[in-house]
Amino acid sequence: MRRWTPFLLFPLLAAPEVARVEIRDRAAAGGYDKFTGRVHFELDPALNRNVRDLALAPRNARGRVEFSADFYVLKPRSGASGTVLFEVPNRGGKGMLSRFNYAGGSLDPRTPEHFGDGFLLEQGLTLAWLGWQYDVPQREGLLRMFPPALAGVRGISRSE
To answer: What pTM value is reported for the model?
Structure first.
């Protein structure tokens, strides 16, 4: 159960329940193990009044609204502290390493340049990102959310 620690944070951040986690890739990345994939959520529309028009969304057999989001996790291979540093990605990117580690930006950190001075790794932090914007361009490495589609809506949706 310990290796799923980063995912236990997600239900605390939002009202939805995690229905399942798909791990699509596991790989080495610098001094970290990298996990990428998608988290599938369910939300009871009767319990959440903060989401506009949620009552109009399609429901599954349990009467819940389903949606999903991409995730990206870097866990130290050794010396993990058990603490997660979570970044809400702006436009699907990953900025935490450049801000805390003086690293070069990367959508898929792997090289020493992507990890900069190694500050976060030295602290033993597990780094996690979860897509939350639905209108992020569909490009490799960007994280996005996949909301339910409303029937009868046509055209482009935009957000500010």
So the answer is: 0.83
